[in-house]
Amino acid sequence: MSMPFGSWPSPFSAASVAASSPRIDGARFVGHEIWWGESVPSEGGRVTVRSSEGREVLPAPWSARSRVHEYGGGAWTASPAGSLFFVNASDQRVYRRDDGAEPRPLTPAGPAHGGLRLQGGRLFAVREDLTADPHLRAIVEIPIDGSAADDVERVRTVVEGTGFYAHPALSPAGDRIAWVQWSGDRMPWDSARLHVRGADGAELVLPTRAALQPEWAGEDELVFADDPSGRWNLHRVALDGSTPEPIAPADADTGYGLWVLGNRWYGLLDDGRIVAVRTNGRDEVVLIDRDGSTRALAVPCDGHVSVDDVSRSRVLLSGNGSTVAPGVWCVDLDTGAVSTVAGGAPADAAWMPPARALVVEGMHGPVHAFAYAPANPDVSTPESGRPPYLVLVHGGPTAHVTGAAAAAIAFYTSRGIGVLDVNYGGSTGYGRAYRERLLGQWGVVDVDDVIAAARGLADAGLADPARIAIRGGSAGGWTVLSALVRGGAFAAGISRYGVTDLRGLVEHSHDFEASYIAGLVGPLPASDALYIERSPLTHADRIDVPVLLLQGEEDRVVPPAQSEAIRDALAAHGVDHEYVLYPGEGHGFRSAETIVDALEREIAFLRRVIG
Length: 611
What we know:
Elements (H helix, E strand, L loop, with lengths): L13 H6 L4 E7 L2 E8 L5 E6 L24 E3 L5 E4 L6 E4 L6 E2 L6 E8 L2 E8 L6 E7 L13 E6 L2 E7 L5 E7 L10 E6 L4 E4 L5 E5 L4 E6 L6 E6 L6 E3 L18 E3 L5 E7 L1 E7 L5 E3 L6 E9 L2 E7 L6 E6 L5 E6 L12 E7 L2 E8 L16 E5 L13 H7 L4 E6 L8 H4 L9 H15 L8 E6 L1 H12 L5 E5 L5 H6 L8 H5 L7 H7 L12 E6 L7 H13 L4 E6 L9 H19 L1
Parallel strand pairs: 30-31, 30-32, 32-33, 33-34, 34-35
Antiparallel strand pairs: 1-2, 2-3, 4-5, 5-6, 6-7, 8-9, 9-10, 10-11, 12-13, 13-14, 14-15, 16-17, 17-18, 18-19, 20-21, 21-22, 22-23, 24-25, 25-26, 26-27, 28-29, 29-31
Helix pairs in contact: 4-5
C-alpha cells in the first residue's frame, strides 16, 4: 500500500513509547543476584531497584533519585549481602533497606546526597548543602548502622568546600581516598584535578587536565581517565611522584561530560585486565590485557554504555544500542558469553533499521549526525517526492547522541517522518577540539551546524527541504529557537523546556552551571550586549513558522518563565504557536501521562504544519 509520507499507520503509539522507555540507573552484583535501577513512567517516573530474581527491591512509594549538582546520579548502591543504600527522592536523605524491612535513614534531614559508593563495607557519598551560605559540597563517609540519622557530627567529612566533588575511591587498605575535584568557575570537562588524601591528612594533587573516575590498582597505584592528548584515555600513576602514563591510548574517549555522578566508563579486574568503553560517535567496549593489547567485545550495547560492576571475570554493562532497546547485560570476559539481564529487546529491523552515520561539511568543520530514514514494512514509499524530516537537537549542550534504536524514534519514522539526530560542535564523543568548538560560540556554532546538517540531508536527496522541522529540549530548545530566528532552514520548531533569555538563565542558574554560560558565551557584565543579541527572545519577531512549546511547571534548571516569555512574544507578533505547561514535571519529562501527551501533541503539530 502506498500512502503519503507522514500519514502512515503505525503500531508505535505514544502510550507504547512511554511504556517502553524506562531509564536504566546502574546495576550491581548482589550475592547470586543482579540488581538494577529502573524508572517507572506509570508511577510518575519513580526510580525503583529490581532483582534478577523477579522481585522489586525498592517498593513504592520510595524512589532512588539524587538532586546533587541538580542532575543527580549515583542514587543507590548495595552490599554483597543484600543491603540496599539509596537516596530518597523526596527528602534527599540516604536510607538503608535490609531484606523485607522498612527503610531507615542514615543521614540527618537537610542536605542532598548522591554518588553513593560502598567500599570495604564503608559508605561514601557526595553531599550538597544549599541551606549554607555560601553553598557547601563535600565528600562524606556515612555510618551504615544508622547512628548518624539524627546527628550530623557522626557523618565524617573527608573534604568540604564551595567547589565540586565526584568519584570517591577508597584504597584497598582503607587508609587513603582519592576523588575528582573542580572549582565553580570551570566545568569538569574543562578542568578537574585528581586528589588523594591519607589518614594523616596529607593531600596529593595530581597534575591532571580533566580527570574522571579514579580507581585503585594496588596500594600505591591509581588508574583514571584524563584527556591531555585531546581524548579521554586511561592513565596509570604510582603515588611516588611519577608521571601518569597512558594505558593503551586510542583516538576515542573513555569518559564524557560529568553531568551525573553515577556513570562509570571502565572496570578493573582482579587479574590486572581492564574492561573499558571507547567512544567515537558510537561506543565500543574493549578488554585491555595486562600487556596493553586490546580486543573489542561482541556486546549488543554501543551507546552511553556504563561499566557498572565487575566480579571476577564477569562485568555488568548498561546502556542502549543501535540494534537493541536500553538494557542491562552480564558479560563473561573469559568465555565471551553475553546474557541479557533487563530490557535489551532486539529492534525489529523492518521497523527500526540502524541509523546511518552522516558527516556533512559545515562552516566550522565537519558536523556529525545520525539519520533514521522512514521505515514501515506495511507501506510502500511513494514513487515521487521526498519525506519530511524532524531534526533532533540534544541538550547539554556538552552531551551527545549515539544513533540508538528507540521506540521514540520509530514513533516518527514508522509514520513516514525521517529523523536526523545531530551532534553539533560542542558535543562530546569526538574529542576535546570538537567539544571546544562551542566555547564563546553558543548560539552560533550549534545553529550553523544543525542548519548545515539539515541542508546536507536535503542536498543528498534524502529529505524534502520544504518540510524539515526541528525539535530540542533544554539547551537543544535554545538551538531550536535560535535556528528559527535565523530563518530559512526549518518549517516548524518544537522546544521542550528551552532556553530563551540568556540573562534570565544566568540569574536563575544553579551552582553547577553558574559559570557554564560564561564559557559558552562570555563573562558578565562585559558580554551583556552579546547575551541580549544571542537570545531568541530578543528576536522573536523574526520567527515566521509555527512553534510548539512544552514546559515542566517545577523545572528549576530552565524555569517556566523562559518558555512563557517567548510564548508571549510569539503571541504579540501573531506567530502560530502552542504552549503546554505540565504540573509536577521538572527538567525532563518522567511521568507516562506527560510523555504520552507530549508525543501526541508533537505528532499532531507536525502533521498540521508539515503534512
